[in-house]
Amino acid sequence: MPSRLLLLVFTLLLMGGCSSPEEAVTTADSATALGDPVENVFLITLDGLRWEEVFTGADPWLLNNNDYTNNREEVASRFWRDTPEARREALMPFFWDVIADEGTLWGNRHLGSTGEVTNGEVFSYPGYNEILTGFADETIVSNDKVPNRNETVLEWVNGQPGFEGRVAAFGSWDVFPYIVNEERSGVPVNAGFDSAEGELTEKEAWLNELQAQTPSPWTAVRLDVFTHHYALETLKSDRPRLVYISYGETDDFAHDGDYRHYLDAAYRTDAFIRDLWTWVQNDPGYAGKTTFLITTDHGRGEQDRWVGHGADWKGSEAIWVAALGPGFPHVGEVGIAVSGEVPAPVYQNQMAATVAELLGLDYTNRLPIGGSLLD
Ligand SMILES: [Zn+2]
Question: Among residues 132, 109, 123, 118, which one has the least CA distance to residue 53?
Answer without folding.
Answer: 109
